[in-house]
Specification:
The chain is mainly α. It has 5 helices and no strands. The N and C termini lie far apart (38 Å). It is elongated, with a radius of gyration of 14 Å.
């Protein structure tokens, strides 16, 4: 079982990576995944949506036990690992075309 504080800390790291690596600053994780589109693999986008749903459920006192802690933890690790591997400087001219920050 992942606690609300742990999930909030992991979500904060993921949001900062999305901001720094892809320039996605606003919206929920599901909205950011949709805005990223083809810049992220389908599995990573699905993990972002799953994490976003878990964040919403963790705020509710009765529904916070509905999400599986192990799956959410694994999804957070996969997303963090993928986003940390994006090197914005190595993208060259495609960074401007896709709207990524340099």
């Amino acid at each position: 079982m992942i606690t609300h504080d742990d999930l909030t800390a992991r979500t904060g790291r993921i949001e900062s990576l999305l901001r720094d690596r892809l320039g996605l600053k606003h919206g929920s994780l599901g909205r950011r995944a949709a805005r990223a589109g083809r810049r992220l693999p389908r599995a990573i986008r699905a993990d972002l949506c799953r994490i976003g749903e878990a964040v919403q459920l963790s705020g509710h006192p009765r529904l916070r036990h509905a999400s599986e802690g192990g799956e959410i933890t694994a999804a957070c690790e996969r997303v963090e690992q993928h986003l940390a591997g994006i090197d914005v400087r190595a993208t060259g001219g495609s960074a401007r075309r896709w709207g990524w920050r340099r």
